[in-house]
C-alpha cells in the first residue's frame, strides 16, 4: 500500500509540475499608438496600425518571443492630437507599465512624445513619423526610428528630377523650375528643408516656397500663386484633407504643371485618393515613400523575408480586404518586425524584455540591405550622434500611379517603368 501511495504521489507531483502556470508563456504588453481617428487616420495612420497588428499576430503565431512570451498589443488612439497622444502615452507608461510604445504616425506627435518617453525610460519605437526634429541634437537614449528621415523625401524628389530633366525637354537640371509647398508642422518643414538644400546643390530654380496649415479650408490663394509662378513640378508635403482640397481647387482653377510629386502621408494611398477625386485626376501623380511590400522585388531580399511578405499580404487582405496595401501598412509591418527581432535578441542575450535590455539590443542590431520586410537594412545611430536612434540604412523611392497601379520610377535599381514625365495630355493638370 505504501508503494502504491508513493507512486500516486509522484505521478501527481509530475502532473502538477507539467501543468504549472510557471511554465506557460508569459504575456509581454507593448503599447501600439497610432491616430486611428481624426484627420491623420486616412492619411496613413490607420494603415500603419493595421500593419503593426498583423506583424504582431504573425510573430505570436510563430511562438512569440522564443516561446517564452506572447506579445499583447495595448492599443491607444492618438486621435490626431498631440495632447491626447501625451495623455495616452502617460497611461501606457504609468498604468499599463509597457516597456515599449510602438507606432506614431505624425511628426507633430512624435516630436513632443520622444523626450517624455526618454525621461520615463520607456522605448519609443517610431514606425512612420519622419521629421528630423524628432531626434536631431536631442541625444535621446530610449527613442529608435527604423523609418527614413524627412529630408530624404525631398532629396529623392530632387534626385528624380535631376535624373529625368531631359524628359521635360530641358537641357540641364538647373533649368528645372520647382515649387515647394508644405504643411507648416514638423513633418512638412523637415521635408521642405531637405528639398531646398538638394535643389540648391543642383542649382534648380525654386519659383515658389509656401507653407500652410493642413487644417485649412481654402487653398485657392496658393493655387493662384502657383499659376503665376509656372513651375515645371510641384513638390508637395501634405497630409490628407489638404491634398484632396488642393487638387480639387487646382483643377477648378486651371493650374497646369508637368508633375505633382507628393511626399508620403495621404499620397501613399493612391486608391483612396482616386475614390475621392476620380481616376483621371490621380493618374500620373507621384509619391515618395518606402516601397510597399507587394512592390518589393523578392530577388533582392534575404531568403527568409519573402515568406514573411507573402504571409503578411495574405493576412492583410483576409482581414482588411486590400490586396495591395499602402506603403504605411508595410512600414507598420517592417518596422514592427524589427522591434520584435530586437526584443527576441534582448531576451536571448540579456534574459528579460525590459526597456533597458531592449535598448542595449537595439544598439547592437545590424541588418544588411534586403534583410527586412521594408527592403532596406537597419543600423541605429549611437548615443552622442547628432541623430542618435535614427536608422542609417533606410531610404524612400519615387512611385507613380499609372493605370490603377503603383509603379516605381526612381532610382534605377528599383524601377519598374519609365516615368510618365511630363504628365500626358489626358491628365487634367497637364500643360496643354
Quickly list its features.
432 residues, alpha/beta, 7-stranded mixed β-sheet, 5-stranded parallel β-sheet, 41% helix
If you had to describe this structure to a student in words, what would you say it looks like?
Strand 3 (100-103), helix 4 and strand 4 (123-126) form a beta-alpha-beta unit. Mean pLDDT is 93; it is low at 8-22. This protein has 13 helices and 12 strands. It is 41% helix and 16% strand. The strands form 2 sheets. It has a 7-stranded mixed beta sheet with strand order 7-6-8-9-10-11-12, sandwiched between helices. Strands 2-1-3-4-5 form a 5-stranded parallel beta sheet, sandwiched between helices. It is an alpha/beta fold and 432 residues long. 51% of the residues are buried. It starts with a helix and ends in a 22-residue tail after the last strand. It is globular and about 70 Å long. It has helices at residues 2-18, 41-61, 82-94, 107-119, 150-164, 186-201, 220-229, 241-252, 270-277, 279-282, 305-320, 327-350, 355-364; strands at 26-34, 69-77, 100-103, 123-126, 143-144, 177-183, 205-212, 233-237, 259-262, 286-289, 397-402, 405-410.
Summary, kept brief:
The chain is an alpha/beta fold and 432 residues long. Helices cover 41% and strands 16% of the residues. The strands form 2 sheets. The protein has a 7-stranded mixed sheet, with helices on both faces. The chain has a 5-stranded parallel sheet with strand order 2-1-3-4-5, with helices on both faces.
Amino acid at each position: 500500500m505504501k508503494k502504491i501511495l508513493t507512486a500516486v504521489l509522484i505521478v501527481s507531483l509530475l502532473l502538477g509540475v507539467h501543468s504549472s502556470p510557471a511554465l506557460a508563456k508569459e504575456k509581454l504588453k507593448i503599447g501600439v499608438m497610432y491616430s486611428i481617428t481624426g484627420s491623420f487616420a486616412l492619411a496613413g495612420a490607420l494603415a500603419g496600425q493595421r500593419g503593426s497588428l498583423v506583424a504582431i499576430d504573425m510573430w505570436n503565431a510563430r511562438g512569440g518571443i522564443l516561446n517564452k512570451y506572447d506579445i499583447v498589443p495595448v492599443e491607444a488612439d492618438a486621435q490626431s492630437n498631440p495632447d491626447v497622444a501625451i495623455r495616452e502615452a502617460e497611461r501606457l507608461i504609468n498604468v499599463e507599465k509597457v516597456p515599449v510604445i510602438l507606432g506614431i504616425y505624425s511628426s507633430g506627435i512624435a516630436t513632443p512624445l520622444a523626450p517624455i518617453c526618454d525621461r520615463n525610460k520607456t522605448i519609443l519605437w517610431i514606425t512612420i513619423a519622419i521629421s528630423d526634429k524628432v531626434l536631431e541634437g536631442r541625444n535621446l537614449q530610449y527613442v529608435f526610428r527604423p523609418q527614413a528621415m524627412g529630408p530624404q523625401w525631398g532629396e529623392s524628389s530632387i534626385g528624380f528630377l535631376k535624373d529625368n530633366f531631359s524628359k521635360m525637354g530641358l537641357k540641364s537640371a538647373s533649368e528645372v523650375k520647382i515649387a515647394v509647398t508644405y504643411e507648416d508642422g514638423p513633418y512638412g518643414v523637415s521635408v521642405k528643408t531637405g528639398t531646398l538644400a538638394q535643389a540648391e546643390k543642383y542649382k534648380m530654380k525654386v519659383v515658389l516656397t509656401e507653407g500652410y496649415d493642413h487644417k485649412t479650408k481654402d487653398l485657392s490663394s496658393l493655387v493662384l500663386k502657383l499659376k503665376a509662378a509656372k513651375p515645371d513640378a510641384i513638390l508637395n508635403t501634405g497630409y490628407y484633407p489638404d491634398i484632396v482640397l488642393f487638387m480639387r481647387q487646382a483643377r477648378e482653377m486651371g493650374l497646369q504643371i508637368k508633375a505633382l510629386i507628393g511626399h508620403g502621408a495621404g499620397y501613399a494611398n493612391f486608391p483612396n485618393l482616386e475614390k475621392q477625386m476620380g481616376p483621371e485626376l490621380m493618374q500620373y501623380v507621384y509619391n515618395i515613400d518606402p516601397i510597399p511590400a507587394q512592390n518589393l522585388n523578392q530577388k533582392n531580399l534575404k531568403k527568409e523575408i519573402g515568406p514573411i511578405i507573402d504571409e503578411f499580404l495574405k493576412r492583410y487582405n483576409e482581414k482588411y480586404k486590400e490586396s495591395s496595401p499602402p506603403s504605411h501598412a508595410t512600414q507598420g509591418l517592417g518596422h514592427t518586425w524589427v522591434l520584435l527581432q530586437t526584443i527576441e535578441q534582448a531576451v536571448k542575450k540579456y534574459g528579460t524584455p525590459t526597456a533597458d535590455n531592449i535598448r542595449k539590443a537595439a544598439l547592437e542590431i545590424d541588418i544588411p540591405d534586403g534583410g527586412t520586410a521594408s527592403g532596406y537594412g537597419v543600423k541605429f545611430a549611437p548615443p552622442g550622434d547628432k541623430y542618435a536612434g535614427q536608422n542609417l540604412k533606410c531610404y524612400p523611392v519615387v512611385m507613380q500611379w499609372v493605370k490603377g497601379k503603383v509603379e516605381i520610377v526612381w532610382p534605377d535599381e528599383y524601377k519598374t517603368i519609365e516615368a510618365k514625365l511630363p504628365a500626358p495630355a489626358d491628365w487634367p493638370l497637364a500643360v496643354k
